[in-house]
Amino acid sequence: MTSTDGNLVKEPKASLNDTVVVNSVSADEEDDIPMLSSHTLEALKEFLAEQNQAAAAAEESVDADGEEVSLVTENWNLSQFWYNRQTAETIAAEVAALSETLISPRVVCIACPTLYAYLKKIVPGVPTQLLEFDKRFEQYGDDFTFYDYNQPEDLPSSLKHSFPIVVADPPYLSKECLDKIAETVKFLSKPGESLLLLLTGEVQTMLAGELLGLRPCGFRPEHSSKLGNEFRLFTSYDPSARLGGWQHDI
Ligand SMILES: C[S@@+](CC[C@H](N)C(=O)[O-])C[C@H]1O[C@@H](n2cnc3c(N)ncnc32)[C@H](O)[C@@H]1O
Question: Of the ranges 58-67, 103-112, 224-233, which is most confident?
Answer without folding.
Answer: 103-112
